[in-house]
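Notes from the 1:1 (GR / supervisor)

We went over the backlog. Supervisor wanted to see one worked example end to end before approving the batch request, so GR pasted a single chain during the call. The sequence is below; no edits were made to it. Supervisor asked that the structure be written out right there so they could see what the output format looks like.
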Amino acid sequence: MREHQQYLIEREKIDYFIDRGYRINGITENLSGAFIEFNLKDVKTDEILNETLHIQTANGRKYFSALLLKQIQSVT
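Structure output shown during the call:
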């Protein structure tokens, strides 16, 4: 049950960034999980905001992978 709770927290954090307009810019995976780099370009100042999120659960990795595929498909 603990892993499921951790996944729900990770999903909520990922959704927080996506809902605010951030896009997945890069992913680094290692033995301790995946690090997702989010970018958001501020339209007023042309400043690029960067955020990094550490995902540790397998379900969290599957979730952001599906979002990344959706993001890539919306560009093409």
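Supervisor's comment: Helices lie at 2-19, 58-75.
Batch request approved.
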